[in-house]
Design a protein that fits this description.
alpha+beta, CBS-domain, 4 domains, 5-stranded antiparallel β-sheet, 4-stranded mixed β-sheet, 17 helices, Putative hemolysin, transmembrane, transmembrane helix, membrane, CNNM
Length: 437
């Protein structure tokens, strides 16, 4: 073999070893990473966090693509090493042991063993050890590249999958189907079990609520900022104690002048206990540091945050760091089992039926409860507006903040603004109109 060709093959082997090492590093980083460690490296509001979590939750397709690349590298390394080494091994063995037959076959086996040694040591074991030191760091760094590799390999994977299915069909075997059970299938099974009496209706409602909760975010379940009873540290202990006594809240945000200068949270039980002991001179010592979560965080991840930090509440923030509201464990539980009224809450006051075809509705009435009560599947602008209350729906439908007595008609329902609380719709009169002939 000519020297230039040999040098070219040596360079190719080195490149292939590097590529295979990098692929094994990515594969190890993906299989060894954990989401709880991920949150210590980058904030959950970072876009890379969501993509990396998606990879960790469903790595199968990407791992299949990496296996395809790795096997290709192993094959190419073995072939290149064989082309270079076999001629030299044949000459060496002929001079060393000229009487031994099958020189070429022995050289072939030795070249395979040498290629295997290179691939396993430099192309597999070494990068795997490196990746295991900091798997999450490597995964975050190369998440986008992993998706690119997957997109490139996808056509080949599909072709191989179809070919394998055809071979199975020719041999008389049925290709494996998709064994994943969809959400709708589970709901159908539960509904059937309820009809047969195996499950109680309350149990079915609870399971439906859990499925619905998986689509909810912290923003949709939180108590909005405008509805929070908060404390101002400049008001002093006596004023704040009066606020705590007048409400049924267990947790209070405390700020300086406003909630944009948030200092933390205070538990009502701590303040009341201190008041009994005459130890309420300084509120600072009762302030706890809250955890902050983005408005887009999914409900189940909020629960994970609660467990990791051993808390029952979190402050919801927007992309600029401003306070949007407060979400508690009670809010999430109510999403599953229904509202748990406090002594001062009057659930019936949120919607009052005046006669057969008209209702007086609070602007803060939950939009999902409203849809369920009126048998509505979907409201206009529901996907893009992200409103959570009937008042929010009306503002979205008007396209501006309406005034008292303004109304809109949708389907056979007439929505009239009955009362405004500054810029918020406070009360709404809903009238069912006769169906058009």
């Amino acid at each position: 073999m000519d020297v230039p060709e040999t040098n070219l093959l040596l360079i190719l082997i080195l490149v292939l070893l590097f590529c295979n090492s990098f692929i094994i590093l990515l594969r190890t980083a993906l299989t060894e990473s954990h989401k709880n460690q991920l949150e210590k490296i980058i904030p959950s509001s970072d876009k890379r966090f969501e993509k990396t979590c998606d990879l960790i939750d469903d790595p199968d397709d990407v791992l299949l693509a990496l296996m395809l690349y790795s096997n290709s590298c192993h094959f190419a390394i073995g072939l290149s090493v064989g082309i270079i080494i076999i001629p030299y091994l044949c000459l060496f063995l002929q001079e060393l042991v000229p009487f031994v037959p099958y020189i070429y076959e022995i050289s072939f086996v030795l070249s395979i063993l040498f290629a295997l040694f290179l691939s396993v040591l430099l192309g597999t074991l070494l990068p795997r050890k490196i990746a295991q030191i900091r798997p999450e760091h490597y995964l975050i760094k190369y998440t986008r590249f992993l998706f690119v590799l997957y997109d490139i390999a996808m056509p080949i994977i599909n072709m191989l999958s179809h070919t394998a299915n055809m071979i199975l069909m020719i041999t008389g075997s049925n290709p494996p189907g998709d064994e994943n059970v969809t959400e709708d299938e589970v709901k159908d099974l539960i509904e059937r079990a309820t009809e047969e009496g195996t499950l109680e209706k309350a149990e079915q409602d609870m399971v439906d609520s859990i499925f619905h909760m998986s689509d909810q975010t912290a923003y949709s379940l939180m108590t909005p900022r405008t509805q929070i009873n908060w404390l101002d540290i400049k008001d002093g202990p006596d004023v704040n104690l009066k606020i705590i006594k007048e409400t049924s809240d267990d947790i209070f945000l405390i700020g300086e002048n406003n909630l944009d200068n948030l200092l933390g949270i205070i538990y009502a039980k701590d303040i009341l206990r201190a008041a009994i002991d005459n130890d309420l001179q300084d509120l600072q010592k009762f302030i706890k540091k809250p955890i902050f979560i983005p408005r887009s965080m999914e409900t189940f991840r909020v629960l994970d945050k609660f467990r990791q930090n051993n808390v029952n509440e979190a402050v919801v923030t927007d992309e600029y760091g401003g306070v949007l509201g407060l979400i508690t464990l009670k809010d999430i539980i109510e999403e599953i089992i229904g509202d748990v009224p406090s002594p001062q809450e009057d659930e019936s006051a949120q919607i009052i039926q005046r006669d057969e075809n008209s209702w007086y509705v609070d602007g803060l009435y939950d939009i999902d409860d409203f849809k369920e009560k009126f048998g509505i599947d979907r409201l206009p602008g529901e996907e893009r507006a992200h409103y959570q209350t009937v008042g929010g729906f009306l503002v979205s439908y008007f396209g501006y903040i309406p005034k008292t007595a303004e109304y809109k008609i949708w389907n056979n329902l007439r929505f009239e603004v009955a009362d405004m609380d500054r810029t918020r719709i406070d009360k709404i009169m809903i009238t069912k109109l006769p169906a058009a002939k």
